[in-house]
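This part of the workshop introduces the protein records we will be handling. A record pairs a protein's sequence with a compact description of its fold. As an example, a complete record with its sequence and its structure tokens follows.

_____
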Amino acid sequence: MPDEIIARPGLRGRLRRFLPQAAPPAAASPAPSAVRRGGERIDAPLEIIDPAVLEQRLYAALDRGDAQAQRVEILAVLRQALADGRAVIRRRFVEEDGSADACVGESAYLMDVLIAGLAALTVSRLFPVSNPTVGERFAIAAIGGYGRGELAPFSDIDLLFLLPYKRNPRVEQVVEYMLYILWDLGLKVGHAVRSVDECVRLARSDTTICTSLMETRLLWGEPTLYDTLRRRFIEEVAAGTGAAFTEAKLGERDARHRRMGDSRYVLEPNVKEGKGGLRDLQTLFWIGKYLYQVDGVEGLVAKGVLTEEEARHFRRSQSFLRAVRCQLHYLTGRAEDRLTFDLQPEMARVAGYTDHAGAKGVERLMKHYFLVAKEVGNLTRIFCAALEAESQRRPKRGLAFLGFAAPMVDGLPLDGDRISLAGEKQIREHPVDIIRLFQVAQLRDLDIHPAALKLITRNIHLISGLREDPEANRIFLEILTAEQDPEIPLRRMNEAGVLGRFIPDFGRVVAQMQYDMYHTYTVDEHTLFALGILHRIETGEAADILPLATQVMRKTGSRRALYVALLCHDIAKGRGGDHSVLGARVARKLGPRFGLTPEETETAQWLVRWHLLLSDTAFKRDIEDDKTVQDFVAAVESPERLRLLLVLTAADISAVGPGRWTAWKATLLSELYYRAEERLSGADEVVGAERRVELAKDLLREALADWPGDAVESYIAKVSRAYWLAFDGTTQARHARLVQAADAKAEATPLAIDIRVDQQRTVAELTIHTADHPGLFSRLAGAIAVSGGNIVEAKIFTFADGMALDTFLVQDAVEGGAFDAPERLAKVKVAIERSLSGEMKMSAELERRHRTYPRFNAVSIAPRVLVDNEASRTHTVIELNGRDRPGLLHAVGRSLTNLGLQISSAKISTFGARAVDVFYVKDVFGLKITHETKLAQIRKTLTGVVADPVAKPVAAAVKRRPRTRRTAA
């Protein structure tokens, strides 16, 4: 078990059921009231099910009328016995803090008695034969996990009906009757009806069948027949095939890992099949059992395969994972093996995890889970790779070194195509060679021999003495900043436990989960992915996805500081407080230790402190506002820092998870980058803005050359200054023609809708021209939400003639890509028309959509409302943070309108389940909101709306106010 788990006080007391119970004292002879399944002692088995009582009741059922009535009664007796037994097992595990090891053994025992009782009744009374022939005698064996004597509460049961020869009619009758009874009990039964010859033949050609037959247990029937199968399996299947079996099981493991995401740190891990789950432990044991013919982990210790310490880690990890799986089954009432997002909080609650400073209870549970999964990875990797190396693997370069007993590479021994260590004496005398091992593997593109990894694991304490060693730190910085990809050696160091020991601050975020449905990976995995992406940016491999970052990276002169900053950017998460501030202190401490210059250390520290500045500004502020750019530039101060910050931000966001880096985010970041770069180069922002306004007007005059001159000037006169800075010339010309077409219709309530899909930015741009009125934004936002759209940006303008021109950039609310399906585009037009006409009951429609997103309800996000009067010269900026839901913008928009506020623009961001929405607003007189009473009312009202998933927007004040008319932005 990882040191982080063992050292935490009180863990065993809080997680009694999640850890293995102490073995009971050995007795001279087992008490008759106890049995064993899967190596576990089951106390008071008769409380679960009494075989004698079951037999009596089953035979009594035969007194009930005809065959159909008998079957109904037999089924009722078995169903009641199953329900009563499961209730006892559940009570012991859930209410009496029983161990999971006992739970799976008790479940197997319950099924054993039921199946054996049913088999005896079926053979002796329902299909009797006075003198059965050899061919009519058979056995029933449990196989697979059930064969090991382990059965999670609602798991499938796998049975083998073992025949001496081919099938005969009587055996088929018995098997059919039993299976239908078991299925009618609601059990999922996997079964096979085979002779001994068929079992042996199939086991030779099918690894899955071979594995299942390796773990068999006689339930009922002819013991000699079962013994024959066991003997022939060992002699004719297992003998001499250890290498092939090992290779096949390792191949299955790798394929399963790829199928399950190929990471043990996925957001919703599969406790059974996922990387680091129970199946990995079983693979380890299967190979050991096949090669060494042992029946337990203790046998692997006796054979010298595992040490006592490693066997203890195996048992503790297995007990923890079993407990999580059993609890999942009980929480869901079915065979559920995925620890899904909505189940994690309840699992944390029943396991006793509480919120601590900087970490929620559910995050602490998942950290424990991931640390156990990491330990499983250590055990399976070392064990399986060692067996592979002994039995099968051929070196890629073996021929190149023929004649050399121990070839050396940079002072380290080369074993086949794997770099290794000479032995324990070497690392005790030269512990720095542990760090150097990973560097040589990186520079020479070599694998690391499993024997070296095992040696490091058993001497991991030596790493602590290297933290202040100048040579060790020099080598580590070279690994981090090498021309070769640093992700591979750093990931190897993390898997081996070296990285967390060498940098204790990093060790604190190993397996640290962020429960927000946005971050896909744990903090350490995210950081390693980010370093790999940074390397690909530098080499140009990421140019197609991150062109600007690739271009800018070539101009940076502080690459060592950048790599150290990226390593440290999230290193202080989970401590409470601002992780950027705390992380900057860590960077300031680690910089000199690694050998950075004072200037490099200062740069790395600044990057960590402000690593969210670029994204926060681009995603949450209106970058067309001069004050936004001015404040951002004041914080950045230099072109070099701007370049470093852009590259770090691109790598950081890209490593959050698949699909997190989007064309839309790239557009926002690049726009801010270019604006800031222009300002840092010495350009006058105010003069530049005025030039842009006049240039935009001139471009529009050219684009509307077919219009009468006075019509062009009339249109220009009614448009605000902010509008000219918000769009390019092509878009402004399209808007002008849209407005002209709407005006030409001369309708009482003019409405024009234009939709353009921008595949490059993966958004649909909706432009709506209609009469302005209070609540317009809310109605439009609601219509878009009802249509399945997710607004990522809104720009709102009111012309001098009282008409509104609102633009929304929209993505698909489910898939996250462009909102471009033709049926959706048609639907949103109809929804907007119905919303503005009052035909649509918006609240009911949005409530219906909210019920289709139940997983969001599992996330607890405290609402927060920030009001900032410094971020803009002309507007009050309101930032809302809370749990996202369909129709949130509709509810917020209505409340802002009823508070008498005019919305000029909005920046909408969603990070998993968290919504971060920013509104630029003015009061009814077109001014900032500065009165404290009004500001307090805004905070209170909006906090209520964000906090309550079904909150009703605040009612409009009774006191009559001047007509709310949104001014130009």
